[in-house]
Amino acid sequence: MRRGKLLKMVSMGVIFAIVTSCGQRNIATSGNRGKQQTITLLHTNDIHGNYMPFLTTTGSATSQTGDAGRDTLITFKQQAEIGGFAVLATAVKEIRKSKGDENVLLLDSGDAFGDDLLGNLTRGEAVIRMMKKLGYNYLSLGNHDFDYGRERTEELMKIAGFPFGAANIRDKRTGKSIFGNPYLIKEIGGTKIAILSLGYHNTDLTGNSENMKDLEFLRGNEVLKEVLLEVKEQADIIILLSHQGTAVDRLTAEEFSEIDLILGGHSHDLISKPEKINNTYMVQALSDAAALGEIDLEITDGKLTGIKANHQLLWLSDFEKDGEMENLIKELRAPHLVHLEEVIATATEVIDRQYKTESSFDKFVGNLLRKEYEAEIAFLPGVGYGISLQGDITREDLYRLIPHPPKIVTLSLTGKQVKATLEQTATNQKPGDKYEVVGGLLQSSGVSYTLDYSKSVGNRITAVQVNGKDLDLEKEYKIVTHSGMLKGLHRYNEIGKGKNIDRKDIQLNEFVTEKFRELKDISNPENMKEIKFIK
């Protein structure tokens, strides 16, 4: 890596220094009075199993960067390869060499090890072994960190050799935070740093409920007061690893001024210039191992007096691949190369995954489903992980977009239920309570409508048409979706109330794989812009 120069960034302000004036705790730790020191925090979030580089698209906003429907819009400024653990390892090692291993902590804010094909084949172990190799110190549990079940998450923690935690995820059997203490105290040069963790409060609405048996997911503000009372007696500086998303992190900062810094996750934001709310600073490092956050804590007399932030995008043109990590990746991939590298189709143009607006990839899949099962409407959940497809599409590429195993389902809904489902997606995106935000925009095919966010909750959907005809509230419509939606994923409860439910014996990702093989050439669907947005 060529350190000493500013790397290409997607937003202004690569390095940001702050002189803090907030009141700090004065813990009597030995040997730190009158002493100045720098402690460096390296942080990632929302890796989603993406240990390999991916190709960006010029000016395109995808699930990695947000899209036009998000509160924050970031676009890549060049078409080039970015990310992956081999270049992440290079960046981390260079910083450790520069700052001293003993002065550096490496942290992750959740959604780390699933959501790709190798993750499925190894049940999360592949990325965990990479994280162990790189020497992570702590993982705050994200909603997708339970995709292989609670027991498997605990097994992966043992493999990792570093703690996983979340103060607001409780084991119902014990009434205590999952996996024990939800924080870690690290003493560096006489200064005690508390690493406190919060998971996603709506985790049970984003995955298979069977994977989360005996777990309770609480809002962070319901548990923080008690935990902070315990932590602040032990630490000079409190760092929160949060998988709540930026909007809720802001609420947390407003309510809990004891927290010095929030390292965020879940919302895939790049906050390279730290936000300050009251006494608390906030940052976030994009997603998909495409960026590395670097925070220097300037400490005098055991108090935080300044912050320097240097968030780097991990362009392959700016970093060499680390040989040790590259060898580990090859070792982990070797038994599965036939599955991973099979080319199943070719994208003749760039096909994107969007999150808060219509997604061309999901529209394409919805069209395939409607045609195959002679349905009038296809509904799929809005999800925030994935890549843009371009050129050869491998099986691994497709599983980055559809990693989970739900099976295809057809059913019938009345027009009234269809409209209620559309109203639910509007509510999910912009509810009155920011803690209630869950999932992305419901992805659909065959239904057009206007969504007006300026109207009151429950009255935002108008001009609904199904295949060009006005929605009939009494009529029954044939719907195609998947089994996760049938179980109330993202609060789409009307789908589970449908009639004539027919569970197909094929997983959605297997179906799409076969259809891509048949089609060979894939392009953007012609029925985009079925939704009109009014903000």
From TrEMBL:
GO biological process, one term: nucleotide catabolic process
A Pfam family recorded for this sequence: Metallophos
TM ranges: none
Calcineurin-like phosphoesterase domain mapped to chain residues: 40-269
Domain of life: Bacteria
Assigned keywords, A-Z: Hydrolase, Nucleotide-binding, Signal
InterPro entries: 5'-Nucleotdase_C, 5'-Nucleotdase_C_sf, 5_nucleotidase/apyrase, Calcineurin-like_PHP, Metallo-depent_PP-like
5'-Nucleotidase C-terminal domain: residues covered: 343-492
Entry's Gene Ontology cellular component terms: outer membrane-bounded periplasmic space
Molecular function, one GO term: hydrolase activity
Gene3D superfamilies: 3.60.21.10, 5'-Nucleotidase, C-terminal domain
Family in the record: Belongs to the 5'-nucleotidase family.
Protein name, UniProt field: 5'-nucleotidase
Organism name: Salinimicrobium sediminis
